[in-house]
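Hi L.,

As promised, 2-isopropylmalate synthase:
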Amino acid sequence: MSERLYIFDTTLRDGEQSPGASMTRDEKIRIARQLEKLGVDIIEAGFAAASPGDAESINAIAEAIKESTICSLARANERDIRAAGEAIKPAARGRIHTFIATSPIHMEKKLRMQPDQVVEAAVAAVKLARQYTDDVEFSAEDALRSEPDFLCRIFDAVIKAGARTINVPDTVGYAVPHLTTEFFRKLIEGTPNSDQVIWSAHCHNDLGMAVANSLAAVMGGARQVECTINGLGERAGNAALEEIVMAVRTRCDVFDLETRIDTTQIVPASKLISSITGYPVQPNKAVVGANAFAHESGIHQDGVLKHRETYEIMSAESVGWSQNKLTLGKLSGRNAFRTRLQELGILPEGEEALNAAFARFKELADKKREIFDEDLRALLGDSGPDATERYRLISLKVVSETGEQPTANLVMGAQGEEHRVVAHGAGPVDAVFKAIESVAQSGADLLLYSVNAVTAGTDSQAEVTVRLSLDDMVVNGQGADIDVLVASTEAYISALNRLTTEAGRAHPQA
Ligand code: KIV
Ligand code: ZN
């Protein structure tokens, strides 16, 4: 049997550090459930000490998730470790991931600490973390620019203090693959009791080598990789989970390692992250890009038709690309609807939420003859109108004519009152957003407007993400509808509602 490679997903922590990708507690729980379904071994759910909201989200995820280990990040100080320890308490399996920088530049310029003090802080942090859980991970931040001898010294000390996983991050994306393999080999050889711990890689993508470096680390002895869905993350991102998993699986002749990942859940996970964060997936992105399995050239098409493996090294189905499966229609009942949502892992909690979703499904089925899994995902991702929220869409009429300025006639509820406004814009979406702003007067800046067709065909639902910023707050709003203008209006209004509630918040580590 092949050895195990542990998959540590940090989409909810390092991924959330992408500008504008901050997520609400409920969104994080939805993502965590999908990661659990995907078979991720460890979910880094956040950084408890960063904000009370982060701690609360980790706590809620620890309550909800049973199959994956739930982890919180913590700097090597008492306050962070205690916050992490409290946040993961409800978890069936909880981990504290503590870190301190070890490179000369970070120790001298950022921490202003001597190497001896850094070792002392790391040991104290690991010992305190062990009072909360047996599962403690230690990271040497900026390890790939640190002195190997110093790393061996600090790793020896934290292993003696009780660390079970040793993570070697390429924090700034500086590493080069063949040297990374050597670096891991050297550390594993030079650290006493290195066989008592799992060695881990955590690579950033500043030079586009995060996945290559992670795999190189595996060749050098790492048995845990830290990664994110779609490679989301700080700056140029982290190593992409889907690429690492599929590389290890497709090239088992080279790696001879097994993961616990259900690869058919990769594309649903990718779509969920993309729709919640508003970060689109580039069409030519490996594994999860829309063109990853599209064959354009005649020679390739001919080859694939004759024998798929002439031009495909893995199948689209194996990573969860469905054949636009027709699931439900106008005549489907509530039971069939509930069963399909359950199969897809998107069943909302509580009868009231299910009833509301079913009512929206019926409305959609009236307009669209065939309802696909993607439609259901979009429908459930869009929470629909909520009478308790500050702003809501009542009705919309948009006139767009060649040579004329588009006009939006909007009726919108704001704090219990009905407002009727007319606005003009450069295009129809611009007119709608101006109409909304003339009522809300939020003064927010529009950072992102993205539209995605959920299925093929011109009767596809449009899934729209709007990202707004106001002062130090950045929020995303989503809307889904067959009418792209209605979806856009809902997305803008949903973002405005978030700006006015606790759900919207500053970047956790700002
Ligand atoms: O990139 C990094 O060094 C990190 C650590 C906190 C593990 O994210
Ligand atoms: Zn990182």
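The CA atoms of residues 92 and 233 lie 27 Å apart.

Thanks again for sending the construct details.

K.
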